[in-house]
Amino acid sequence: MTDQRRAKYCVRVNEAYCKGCGYCIEFCPKKVFDRKVELNAKGVNSPVFARPDDCIGCGQCNLLCPDLAIKIEEVEPDG
Amino acid sequence: MSPLNHPHSKSLRVDQLPHIWCQGCGLGIVLHAYADALEETGLDLDKVATISGIGCAGRASGYVNTDAFHTTHGRALPFATGVGISRPEIKPVVISGDGDLFSIGGNHLIHAARRNVDVLVICSNNFNYGMTGAQFGPTTPSETKTPTSPYGNIENPFNLVALVTSAGATMVSRWTVMHPNQLKRSIKRGLTKKGFSFIEVITPCTTGYGRLNKMSPLDMMKSLKKTGKIRKVLPIEAICDPATEIILGDFVDIEKPTYNEVFESLTHRAGVAL
Amino acid sequence: MAEVLTGSHFVHGDWACAEGAIVAGCRFYAAYPITPATEIAERLAQRLPRVGGKFIQFEDELGAMASVIGASYAGQKAMTATSGPGISLMLENIGLAVMTEAPCVIVNVMRSGPSTGQPTAGAQGDVMQCRWGTHGDIEIIALAPQSVQEMFDLTIHAFNLSERYRIPVFLMADANIGHLYESLKIPETDRINIVDRRKPTAAKGEYRPFSAGEDLVPPMACFGDGYHFYATGLTHNERGYPDMSVEAQDRLIRRLCDKIRRDTTRIEMVEEHFTDDCNVLVVAYGITARSALSAVKRAREGGIKAGLLRLITLWPFPDARIEELTRCCVGVVVAEMNYGQLVREVERAAMRRVEFVPKLGENPHQPEEILAAIRRAGK
User: Which residues contact B145 (CB under 8 A, 6 or more apart)?
Assistant: First the structure.
């Protein structure tokens, strides 16, 4: 069972670009993001990739990010 | 993630990021779709020129890693015409806003479409003049209260899809930023197609139009998802009313000789072509 | 038909201007028809496709000027021709050409204004407009032909200057010259000097589009060369990116102006007659200078030591030469086909009042009018 839930994707949020609009959080079909409680140095509650195992790599977060702050990488399966 | 390993380091000037647009501004999504399209079509980026006018959308050309030019208000299309007809191997792409393209630039828009100049126009329609503080523009719905229509907008908005179609455009599409895949697909089509291609993108202006209408950025995006309806209709029927319904789709995609092609054929016929 | 129509012709000024553009290498022309410049458009509509160029009649002058800048940035030598009302429409984009250092030639075949005025009547009423019409601190170059031959020669020179300095250059022809028929000699191609813009030698990643050396003129890449450069009408830094700092404004504006101001001795062109020992100096340009020369000769016959300074470059204005020549003069006369424009510059440079002979309406000055002024000035 754990194999099926191993994270296949890693979503990185570039906090240097993120302006905290929340689109990735809201429109993710699997709701993998949470919003950080604390403000970062830019004054933004940026998203955090909280549930990697649920991510299906649909790419919506990347496409809808107005700040080009999201990078999606495929995770290499363990040997 | 440093600029060096940004996924769009080929098509964007990543050293200029983060961009100047507001939190949640749809222009970032448009820029993203354009960057993806540029990379996926595999076009030679040496032969693309990104040209923009004045306004928030006009800043887009400063982020694109092609030859790029930021013109005076409303004059992106004549500039692009000068480029495209003197250097037919260069594909001009105009990224600008509803005010720049249809108010001050309206005359040039209809003539460029009439000429079927080979250019892709990506028009960000956010229903107001964002940069100067949310004044009403040629696409603002009637009765909207803005700083220059404090008692309500007296005027009627254009249907950009119908207008551009009747002016002679050979590709006309409308999407919203909540439809990034379709948007990217249309951009790719416009990049590779010859002729006057026009894509209207409904974009949220979060600090302008959104604030005037008491909508948060998320409210605006959810509204686009709700009101955006993909339908096969005639351009004149393609309603664009952000309160009720925004008809989306690919409305026109026809082939017609471009300005340059007609120039070639007429000068050959006259026996004067080199 | 050959590119260069070497030989003798009997043509009008507009025709000569069009042929001068072809010889200079102009391969893009955009305009809107307007009396008295339309003939330039009609000639180039015919000629440009035959020499591998493009002609486009735009929906208005604003678009025409914008497309000229586009073609210039695409590597073409580009030109437009219009009259006063058209220049008024083009002013904003003329500023864009200055700001983005786009080489281009703008011909104003001047007619009586202001506003619609008298479309078929020649005038010299736009000479301040070309210098100061667009907003902000700028420098431009303006040339004033006085003959059909000069309509040809100075059009070529205008292109050369625009390429050399990356600046819009105006050809300020009064309509009288534009529609005048005279002999024109077009020389062999190898006897004509053509200047092209300097191209960058920097590697593609290293190119700074607005970085200049000693001469303050940046080498110019063009679209399609692979440099992927950016240009904007906003105040910008050497990389072309918008820069709203005080330092950027100071640096850029000084460079855009100083590239001309520091080279005025090379740019200014005047023609002098009888100035070695004159004590009444007449200053004139365009067709007025022809009447003025006649007046000066008759003054000399009548015993007055009159001399003529003909301005070929109106801008930059030859302050130093005027100051030098007028120092020992009893009087100075300025004749213009307007109600007082460059006369103010002469007064400023000469630091004195001058005898001014205005002319309103289509007829150039009669030599007698200027002679009468010479007599008044000589007292």
Answer: B151, B152, B153, B212
